[in-house]
Amino acid sequence: MAYYPTRLKTRQTYSWVGKPLLDQKLRYHTYKEMNVKMEGGLTEIHIQVGQFVLIEGDDDENPYVAKLVELFQDDSEPYSKKRARVQWFIRFCEVPVSKRHLLGRKPAAQEIFWYDYPACNSNISAETIIDHVQVVALGPDEVIPMGPKNEKTLFVKLSWNEKTFRPLAPELFAEFDQPQEGSPRHQKPVGAKTKGLGSPSWTTAEHAIKRIESRHSTSKSRRTPSHPVTPKAKKRLELSGLPRTPSTRISQQNSGALLDSPGRSKRKVAFSEITSPTKRSQPDGLHTLSPALKALQKTGEIQSSCAKDNKKASPDCHRILRTRVPALKTTETSEERTLTPIKGGWKSSAVPSVVLKPENIKKREAEEPEAQDETTSTPHRIRRKSSLLTLNRIKQQLRFLGNSKSDQEEDEFLPAAEISDSGSEEEETSTPPILRRTSSRVSKNLCSSVKSSLQTPSKTPKKTPKPSTPRHAIPRIPSRNLAAQEPASMLEEARLRLHVSAVPESLPCREQEFQNIYNFVESKLLDRTGGCMYISGVPGTGKTATVHEVIRCLQQAAQVNDIPPFQYVEVNGMKLTEPHQVYVQILQKLTGQKATANHAAELLAKCFLTQRSSEETTVLLVDELDLLWTQKQDVLYNLFDWPTHKEARLVVLTIANTMDLPERIMMNRVSSRLGLTRMSFQPYTHSQLQRILICRLRHVKAFEDDAIQLVARKVAALSGDARRCLDICRRATEICEFSCQKPDSPGLVTVAHLLQAVDEMFSSSYITAIKNSSVLEQSFLRAILAEFRRSGLEEATFQQVYSQHVALCRMEGLPYPTMSETMAVCSHLSSCRLLLVGPSRNDLLLRVRLNISQDDVLYALKE
Amino acid sequence: MKRSGFQFVKMSSRKSKSNNLIHAEYLSQVQRILRERFCHQSPHSNLFGVQVQYKHLIELLKRTAIHGESNSVLIIGPRGSGKTMLINHALKELMEAEEVSENVLQVHLNGLLQINDKIALKEITRQLNLENVVGDKVFGSFAENLSFLLEALKKGDRSSSCPVIFVLDEFDLFAHHKNQTLLYNLFDISQSAQTPLAVIGLTCRLDILELLEKRVKSRFSHRQIHLMNSFGFPQYLKIFKEQLSLPAEFPDKIFTEKWNENIQCLTEDRSVREVLQKHFNVSKNLRSLHMLLMLALNRVTTSHPFMTAADVMEANHLCSMDSKANIVHGLSVLEICLIIAMKHLNDIYEEEPFNFQMVYNEFQKFVQRKAHSVYNFEKPVVMKAFEHLQQLELIRPMERTSVNTQREYQLMKLLLDNTQIMNALQKYPNCPTDVRQWATSSLSWL
């Protein structure tokens, strides 16, 4: 990445336009308009109060969007005297991750939200303003238009107040219409066009390297929300604006220097352009561009890319490039046409004469102090091989950057060949590579999602220099080519509903528990305090399901502002490799950060034990708590200790299987912190199980009523595990389907089917196994029984059993069993765990025991 | 005339020679085909007596593949009962279906290879082709691997993602992993609305459900398919015949016919049936049948192109041979004498352990009585013989050998049964009569 170290901050000059108006109350000078100039004077942006502007943030891809309310001069500030007041907009990616689901749909790529949050600081430094942008308000039912034409326009549909998304108020709509009329006047900024093409792609390209997501979409991906920017970031905004001011000043001091060669552009200029944040200009302003100036811009960019190439970046080369401006421009146009189809007769107007607006020249040259000694450049040195090469390389790069971010990766190792062969005739070769490019990209997009998800994320971590912004490659199982079949028959439908994974509309039979948990969490949320709750119950009694349901209801309530919003984090002890990993998981789900276990513990402690900026309560669900037990019990201690702190606002819900877990495994100081809020989920009774089944099968008539009752009673007697109940029913539907061969018969699941299913699942297989074992195996078992009876013990050595076995075989007329055969029989029986034997190296002295009762063996051996 | 007659002889001999060559060619092919059948668990062979179980399994897999329904099932059966063959058959049939083949991912794990969850996770990611994402060092640790994989599986849902079929061979070994994390997570996914999974465990342990932790057990669907070798002897005979018969696509029809006819004769032969019955009595395991047939097949040569009853009997003899008796056959007279002395000690002291000195004394007594028949060896030589017996594991020290204990007084146990010793002595070549007498006499001092 040759261009990476060349990245510099843009120098921009900000100046007021028009007369100051004195604000009586605040004693500020307010202005109506501001002029922003890039260093080199190639562009000039007029920003007017009431316009929508882009404001520099910490994410150059997605600068902040705001509406300019006021511009004023503040003399009390040390650096930035030019201040602005804005009304913020928020991008979807700036919405906190935990709140994104509230939108309830996928946001459009260019959608922004009116930020209705008075607490946010709206006073910013005017010098952080990058550019103006077009924002269009849409009604709630209007569709956001897509397409290349609208690429640089942002759309507002909803407002966001940190809690909910709401439609825009009608009076806001009126405000939106007003600035649009004034905007054409500001289309005159020169070179805005090239900005739109060139520089955004530079900047984005740089960022593309940093954050290549698994998405391969082209320019649109630039806007798709890529990472969370919390509203806190807005505060940093001013800070980032300030330090740049001194450098601007310095350049202004040098403004005495004059330069007569208008076509000159310095590397520095070029750099400043490169690093300038994304500009989006209105496409209709194109025609006002002076072509020559446009050409100049090109040179600027070209030189910059020369520098990036780290090749032949000598001043000599620069001169050549500069003189070749017209030719270059023509080649560029063809390329640009492919990018933006709006442009018409550009090529014809490409006159090499340099006619600049005097004002622009002056300003630009003012910022080029060292350029003076190069004034005597010979204007016509033509076609040097090297220059051509560089030219083409530049073009190549421009094209890549303009085309897509994803291609940025490739150009590092790929296009050397393309460059060299396109060196001779630029006119012809300038277009085909594009085609090649696009086609290759298309084909790549067509590739299975597996591939794309495999390729890009693997590169991500390497290129991400800062680990603080977590960028998870989100892995996925490839999606199926053929849609899954929907259930066709009644039985299939029933089976689908009976699957444990099917989420029922409500949880019957757990109303009381639900209410208790709900009340507990709700009261903590309302009181803005923290607390712990311990939930126990045997597996399959709906503990986790109930808590999930509670959280879902609470989230709904928070959405309609019944209760304060809260953050929800869930961890499962079984899904951790070791107890301390719980910190890592919590931290990651809470803030998206990644850290080692120890570091995460520190961060979490800091987060919970000190005054937090965010006002939200955190609800933490810890499933399978017993697995978080460690020798020192530090994990459990921390989990229960944090909620006791006032600032933490942490509600911890813990789930485990055993009722007396706190007493059994926890130290006193841990169980004391857990408190006495306990709840125990009793195993389901048969009537409850019956209700659950009936509830699941509400509109499906697939079971006989007796059958349902039977299974409910059977399961309740055994374990009261609802999962078992559902599994048996599901199996019964299958048996029913097998047994009635007519495919279209409605076939109800009867008691017989269910009994068969219950049998299959619960019957012990030992007896069948013995019945189906070979003659010698059976006789060996008999010998064991005989030996046990003889000795009166439950254990015998292999030798003893063998002598019994030999005797038995002689009695039954079987051939004499050799020792090796008998040993094989014994090991076979022990591999099925019908026998329990010691280590086999004991050979004859092997100790043999039965794994089932002697009665069972006798029963099984009875003919 | 004479000349032509000579030519004729030469021709006929050449003919028979070429005939022989052809035979050799066929025979090598026969051996190749049959050995493949015996040794490889190819999914092309037929299934015996497991049609019901097969149907259950294939329906289950189909529902996962086509409807995206998550399932878990255990296939339980003793070793050699065809568990792997069953699942291979089912997967093969499943993959032949057009709508399934592209939609289903398979992950095969074996408890003997993936000895802990970390390795298992690596293997799963590799088999799911996700390793390029994980391979980077950022995703190094076990914990990250796990959360990564869970994330991946969580992303999917019933209707849109590819179903994944997990086949866990030696399932019981996975239950010994720490916390049973892998099993918990697999079963948990199969019971929640995530990527559809079919978890198929193969195990020979009947008590497998008792090995599962209660949470894991609750999440398992409790479907079990039992393979029990529930066939009788007539079916066993049929299997025998089918396993030895040549397929119809064998190049030479006449040879195939002859071979199969011979096999048919074999199945009807009384002695072969007896052998098979005996083998069947010992074990219903089809793999042991394959072993027997393999040994019989090895005796087929060009001079002896068709299998005979004698071959099968010989093979059975090899199979059922007592390995320890064979070792005793190869011992020297001195060593045999020591074993007999031990046997007498066992009889006298009722299986109490003995030491070298006791054995030596017993041996000395015998030598003194019958000085003419056995040479009186020096003590170190006897000691050497004693140690050789220990090396052959015919005797075994009671405690582990330590430096302090004197070798002469270390307690030992004999790992041979009386019947074994007597049987071995019967067949022992050139055994001195006195020694044999000493062995048979219940009174050692006679």
TrEMBL record, chain A:
Domain BAH residue range list: 45-171
Function field: Component of the origin recognition complex (ORC) that binds origins of replication. DNA-binding is ATP-dependent, however specific DNA sequences that define origins of replication have not been identified so far. ORC is required to assemble the pre-replication complex necessary to initiate DNA replication.
Pfam families found in the cross-reference section: AAA, AAA_lid_10, BAH, WHD_Cdc6
Region of interest (Disordered), ranges: 177-287, 357-389, 402-482
A molecular function GO annotation: metal ion binding
Entry keyword set: ATP-binding, DNA replication, DNA-binding, Magnesium, Metal-binding, Nucleotide-binding, Nucleus, Phosphoprotein
Example of a GO biological process term: mitotic DNA replication checkpoint signaling
Record organism: Callorhinus ursinus (Northern fur seal)
Subcellular location as annotated: Nucleus
Biased composition regions of type Polar residues, renumbered to the chain: 245-256, 440-450
Name of the protein in its database record: Origin recognition complex subunit 1
Biased composition (Basic and acidic residues): 207-216
Spans traversing the lipid bilayer: none
Family: Belongs to the ORC1 family.
Gene3D superfamilies given in the database record: 1.10.8.60, 2.30.30.490, P-loop containing nucleotide triphosphate hydrolases
UniProt subunit comment: Component of ORC, a complex composed of at least 6 subunits: ORC1, ORC2, ORC3, ORC4, ORC5 and ORC6. ORC is regulated in a cell-cycle dependent manner. It is sequentially assembled at the exit from anaphase of mitosis and disassembled as cells enter S phase. Interacts with CDC6 and KAT7/HBO1. Interacts with LRWD1 predominantly during the G1 phase and with less affinity during mitosis, when phosphorylated.
Annotated PROSITE patterns: BAH
One term under GO cellular component: nuclear origin of replication recognition complex
Major place of residence: nucleus
